[in-house]
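Support reply, case 0932

Customer input (verbatim):
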Amino acid sequence: MTHRVLVPIDGSEMAEHALEYALETHPEAEITVLHIAGAPSAMMGASVGLALESDIEEAAEERAAEIFDGAREIADSHGVEIETDVSWGSPAKAIVNHADGFDVVVIGSHSGTLADRLIVGNVAQKVVQHSPVPVTVVR
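Our regenerated output:
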């Protein structure tokens, strides 16, 4: 039985599908939604924006709060409470580093624009290759 599920989320439609899948497939599990702050983008906008803040941690938490609010709405529709966590740096590395304490990672197949995926790389693919626990990729 699956007890702990990690769902990386970035506010994209695919990440929301992954959360829905995790909630439906693992209704008794503890679900933790992970947002990676300062994730690279095609123009490094998110990372640079955070770097210019006087309190980087607080700014990252504020940016993640909106994404977590959306995730909580999805979880509420299933009658489930979720845990939230914020991490830093490369999305794939952060997810893999967090995965060790979970039974499974449920991740969206892709997010962002085509340009983001080409420059940043396919996070889901990297997580599948390096995760210490099973990974479910949701389309």
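We compared this against your earlier run and they match. Two observations from our side: The chain has a mean pLDDT of 85. The longest strand covers residues 30-37. Please reopen the case if you see a mismatch on your end.
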